[in-house]
Amino acid sequence: FRKKNISTLYFSIYCFIIGIRILVIDDYYLTDLFPSAPFELGNKLSYLTFYLGVPSLAIFVHSLYPEDFSKYVVRAYMFLGGVFSLIVLFSKSIFYAEFLIYYQLATLLIILYSIYFIVLILLRKREGSMTFTIGILTIFITATNDILYTNLLIQTANIIPFGLFVFIFSQTLILSKKFSLAFNRVEELSEALQKNNDQLEEIVGQRTAELNELNLALAQNLEELRSNIDMINAQNKEIKAQHHSITSSINYAKNIQSNILPDFQHIQAHFPDSFLIFRAKDIVSGDFYYFNQKQNKFVLAAVDCTGHGVPGAFMSLIGYEILTEIIEHYHLMEPSHILKRLHLGIKKLLKQGESTSNSRDGMDIALVVIDMEKKELLFAGAKTPLVYIENGKMKMIDGDNLHIGGINSKDSIEFQQTTLPFGDKENFSFYLFSDGYQDQFGGEQNKKLMKRHFRELLFQLHAMPMKEQGDLLLEWHEAWKGNIAQTDDILVMGLRLK
């Protein structure tokens, strides 16, 4: 009736087996109850109750202490009891009586195991372990006595009924205690539950009153919140309108910047094996590239202005116009002279150095003049290097450690100029760039790419056609930055001179 406490069922089965056994041993009560019952029936019952009593006892003990009494011992004795019981059921007493000694020896083994088990539950202080130990030791002692007596090894008497009585009484005491504890626990829980219910009703009343007050306060807050939401929605509409207006203006500025900068196809018309990577961090760029031609000389530059976005874009337009004026009106074609004039033009236009100006804006630049007649490349740079490949080797010329413009820059500065002949070089190529590509954060550790890795990447790709180099540089940049935002404006140009 209560499957969670199955030990009670196993105990009743064991008691039933013992009850039958008492009918057929010693005084042989079976013949008093049933005079016509055959002797063979009583004899078989005496053997069967012994063979089934041991495994039923093992099952019961295991149900009481499942963590301590081995289930493998239970299964072993269930198997032995079943085999010996089948022998009794399907053979004559002259045959099955011969096997009794073997089962008695097996019984002695489980008694030895049980001694270990008893010590175990006593050490672990299991519930009812002392009472169980008294009962089980009594039945083991009386059972051992009866086995020795039956085999004529000692001269006593069959005292197993006394042992069974003590054992059954002790197990009944354990089970009764369990039920009593359970009922006591139920009564305690019922009383505690009633107290909790009373307290809960009181708490519910208090909470109800508090909630009513809170609801009133929430209603007032909700009204204020609705008013605030209406105001926020109005502000959002205004912000969206302003954002749209600003974005439209910046996009228009992008168109202006794009129209001012030379079409790269025009550069490719003179230098077919070339590429350009030009990506703004924001809509407009503070980096720009420059191209101009005077007869057989070509001016090419990569410029990185102070800042990015709109401020950088303004500086890029200023720088572009001053460079054009230097080349078109002053006819300067020496890189060092061009940079010096550019520096003076920036300082003059932004009034840098005057007390009324606090402008610190300027630019870094790498500028080359390609003389197709002399087959020479002239370079000068401000904070920006020139990287070139000749005869399969990468080389680099650092720009001067000087800025173009800036409040702390001197008026009279000189730039170094380097001349590189390329007429007798096989596949001479060079790269102009700003610092945006090499300063990009990314990779597994979210660090900058750095100059060295950028140059190594250029060298790995240098043998490929320039267009493929540009495509691979773009793909590698996207993979490097992953989900990280672009750090700065990016400008990279590569040209091969043949």
Summarize the structure.
The chain is an alpha+beta fold. Helices cover 58% and strands 15% of the residues.
Q: How would you portray this structure in words?
A:
With 498 residues, this protein is of the alpha+beta class. The protein is built from 13 helices and 13 strands. The two termini are 100 Å apart. Strand 4 and strand 5 (376-382) form a beta hairpin. The mean pLDDT is 86. Helix 3 packs antiparallel against helix 4 (71-89), helix 6 runs antiparallel to helix 7 (129-150) and helix 7 (129-150) crosses helix 8 (160-260). 30% of the residues are buried. The strands form 3 sheets. Strands 2, 3, 4, 5, 8 and 9 form a 6-stranded antiparallel beta sheet that branches.
Biggest sheet layout: 6 strands, antiparallel
Average pLDDT, rounded to a whole number, is: 86
Beta-strand portion reads 5-15%
Poorly predicted regions: none
SSE string, helices as H and strands as E? HHHHHHHHHEEEHHEEEEEEEEEHHE
How does the overall form come out from the CA principal axes? elongated
The rounded distance between the terminal residues' Cα atoms is 100 Å
The Rg value, from CA coordinates, equals 51 Å
Structural class: alpha+beta
| Number of helices in the DSSP assignment | 13
**What's the count of strands?**
13
